[in-house]
């Protein structure tokens, strides 16, 4: 049985009124008597009538909805961002439509086209790891759709952007590993096309330099899908551990890379930190409860969502074209726990 929403016509038929009278009553028009308004509103509430959002968007030229594109909702970092987005959006009277790219450019393209066809008022985007061609976003931006980028930002489109100080987070993490006596620190990185990858690897190099350690390109491995595909992490770790000079520490630059490193080590009975230390970007809430507890760079994900949404709503509701844009950079926090500490191997 096909679901059919209650319409103004249904109310009019049930009450023996014209559709125009019901419509005016629902809009609290002065043309309708208080008695008729009361009758219509009480019946509408009884049958759980809700205005058709598509019809309203055609009339008001606004849908009161915003689109969100992330790589994966199951990723704790992005789920926390979405919570931040919703906390602001609903308070300001907007619904959200969430789409996942799963790190695929093709899926991102389809999602963007679908959301645009739904007449969203604005778009919040964290681009996929495969995204190099930005035409789908540039064309919408050129046509006036408000867009705000967060986390994985796009430099070539002039709009608001929200990110964290990736350079600082990575530099502090790498410097900590070096300060605790690790000499061969490898970096497990996301797609090299992403802004966060470039910034975090620059911080990684800085952290090495602070302790006089040379940058060794053979100790840097890229995972094009950022750990979403475990086999990419497995291959990268196999290559690192097969080298003559094996790394004594791993700096993982993304949430899924960090957790999949742990998965890799457990499958091979590699002890952390006795055999190899681990420190990574992660927003998983239970990192301190793992054994060993996990050292992480944690990002203010909820706040990223809030800031990005406020900026987007300002764009949507501005009475004049906005020409001055800002990039807000929030601060990450380094949490030192057992996984990154130097321990003597038991013989």
Automatic annotation (TrEMBL):
Pfam families: LacI, Peripla_BP_3. Residues 6-60 form the HTH lacI-type domain. Keywords: DNA-binding, Transcription, Transcription regulation. GO terms for molecular function: DNA-binding transcription factor activity; transcription cis-regulatory region binding. The keyword Electron transport does not apply. The keyword S-adenosyl-L-methionine does not apply. InterPro entries: HTH_LacI, LacI/GalR-like_sensor, Lambda_DNA-bd_dom_sf, Peripla_BP_I. It comes from the Bacteria. This is Transcriptional regulator, LacI family. It comes from Sediminibacterium ginsengisoli.
């Amino acid at each position: 049985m096909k679901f059919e929403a209650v319409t103004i016509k249904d109310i009019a038929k049930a009450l023996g009124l014209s559709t125009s009278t019901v419509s005016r009553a629902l809009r609290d028009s002065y043309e309708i008597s208080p008695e008729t308004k009361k009758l219509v509103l009480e019946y509408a509430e009884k049958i759980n009538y809700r205005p058709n959002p598509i019809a309203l968007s055609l009339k008001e030229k606004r849908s009161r909805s915003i689109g969100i594109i992330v790589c994966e909702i199951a990723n704790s970092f992005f789920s926390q961002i979405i919570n931040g987005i919703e906390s602001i959006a609903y308070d300001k009277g907007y619904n959200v439509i969430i789409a996942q790219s799963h790190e695929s450019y093709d899926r991102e393209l389809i999602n963007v086209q679908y959301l645009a066809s739904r007449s969203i008022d604005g778009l919040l985007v964290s681009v996929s790891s495969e995204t190099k061609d930005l035409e789908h976003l540039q064309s919408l931006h050129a046509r006036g759709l408000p867009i705000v980028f967060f986390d994985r930002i796009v430099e070539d489109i002039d709009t608001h952007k929200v990110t964290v100080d990736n350079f600082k987070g990575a530099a502090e993490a790498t410097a900590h590993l070096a300060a605790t006596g690790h000499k061969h620190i490898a970096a497990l990185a996301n797609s090299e096309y992403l802004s966060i990858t470039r910034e975090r690897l620059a911080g990684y190099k800085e952290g090495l330099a602070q302790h006089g350690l040379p940058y060794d390109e053979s100790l840097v491995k890229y995972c094009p899908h950022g750990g979403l595909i475990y086999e990419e992490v497995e291959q990268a770790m196999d290559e690192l551990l097969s080298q003559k000079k094996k790394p004594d520490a791993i700096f993982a630059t993304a949430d899924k890379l960090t957790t999949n490193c742990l998965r890799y080590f457990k499958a091979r009975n590699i002890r952390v930190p006795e055999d190899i230390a681990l420190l990574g970007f992660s927003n998983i809430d239970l990192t301190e409860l793992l054994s060993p507890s996990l050292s992480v760079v944690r990002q203010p994900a909820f706040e990223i969502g809030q800031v990005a949404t406020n900026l987007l709503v300002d764009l949507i509701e501005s009475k004049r074209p906005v020409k001055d844009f800002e990039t807000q950079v929030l601060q990450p926090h380094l949490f030192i726990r057992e996984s990154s500490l130097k321990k003597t191997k038991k013989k």
